[in-house]
Write a structure and sequence with these properties.
Helices cover 49% and strands 20% of the residues. By secondary structure, the protein is an alpha/beta fold. The chain has an eight-stranded mixed beta barrel, surrounded by five helices. Helix 11 links the parallel strand 9 and strand 10. The chain is elongated, with a radius of gyration of 34 Å.
Length: 566
Amino acid sequence: MNTSLSGMADRRRQLLIVDDDPISRAILGNLIGESYDVAYAENGCEALAWLERASRTVSLVLLDLMMPVMDGVETLRRMKESEALRKIPVIVLTSEGEAEAETLRSGATDFITKPYKEEIVRARIARTIELAEDRQIIQTVETDSLTGLYSKDFFFEYAGALVEAHPGVQMDALVLDLDRFHLYNEMRGRDAGNRLLAVMGEGIRRELAGKVGIGCRCQADTFYVYMAHTEAHASILERISACLAEAGSGNVHVRMGVCTRTDMTKDLEGRFDRAKAACSRIRGDYLHSLAYYDDSQYEHDIHAQRLINETQEALRTGQFKVYYQPKYDITGSRAALRSAEALVRWQHPEFGMVSPGLFIPLFEDNGMIRELDSYVWRSAARQVAQWRERYGRLIPVSVNVSRIDLFDEGLLERLNGIRAENELPVEALILEITESAYTEDTEQAIAVIASLRAAGYRIEMDDFGSGYSSLNMLLHMPVDALKIDGAFMRSLSAHKKDTWLIGTLVDIARHLNVPTVFEGVEEEQQVQLIREAGGQIVQGYYFSRPLPPEPFDQIIEKDMEEAALC
């Protein structure tokens, strides 16, 4: 609770009596002086000057209507125009019955008629103060102090009331999220981030002005909007994005998910879950900022939920298969096998081979990725041990370490335990950590990764170039290799600018004194460009697709035969 509110019960409230008649002031002051600290003003001008100094401490104004210099009606009007004074409750003092209705319409909270009756005066003052303080407490928790929008709990309460007040009006559920806001906070500071959130809130309020709709800051950098149906979602997003750009948002990207003409038979939170699912679908997609929840998304969600429900059974029955894609060193006279990457596949008994692009994000969202990672680590370690026993050589395997794993205090112990079970040295497992994991939780990631490196593990920054780490941040990131995102290979051509780009990436790695690993290599021309630029390690379909353990044995045997001939 707000500190100023929590202390109200322990202090005497301060009241201001505004009346030009000294006798009336004295009578009223004597009636309430034992219960309240009372100040006095003779007219509206005097009262406003006093209130400007004491607006944070005054609990109530008792205002006479008929006064010289500035009367009560004008005083009341000016109070309601002032941001600092408008919330102070006002009881009008009057002997004119016709004026009561007018002053109430002008913003007075209540009125007391002259001559004063002690019990009525005390009761109305106490009740008015109580209602004002209760309202202030509610406003403190119902709105987000940073943006002025509703808090999440009150948002859903008032959204339901909004629907009841406008029966038959079709409504849209909108979820807006700021991509890379964490990085903005990291680089510019929390104060700058808070200012950006405030601009976002102002942009949403502008969009809702004069319309049927309300908004809230749901959490951190996520906002909900519930409004009458419109076809202009793209325009709304464009205007809000423009507001942020004017405020200096840098590379912060606004994305919006929409559940349009929401099914009123669904619960309100369910409608926003759907809008949020649409918004999540374009996370990290900087070509698309707007996504709609539709029937295909619904079928996707049903399918996804079934996969989640069947994960434990799949782990128990061995439906997850670990494949291995070879990684080759191209710096010598021949491409030599150096290591492999472990890639998990789900062989579902009904759906067949389920794409990792589907189930990996699901597991990252619900936390199941930790169990899947452990499964892959154990499978990979067993396979490395088998290859060493069969061929007499250690073929390291790189395994993925997710962002959730980085928050596990027992991560190092888990990895060491898996190696110990298979009697493997620390260099047997190479740990791949995505660039986004570094940039989203920089301090946490660096601390954990530094401890892994101190224990002897080799760290590859995976998907380098797909995230947004600055060169300055790279200098402080603990890493042993940069793994270049496969998107670079997919867009590669024979143009000089492509060669220059590959060379630049290699130069960055050289500056950091680490090697490069290029994935997604599919053509001989790409291999040649990487070799000419000074790249070292490559993997991709040009050499081999990911393979089950048995076919991978042939890769090892072929490499050993070629090495023997050299």
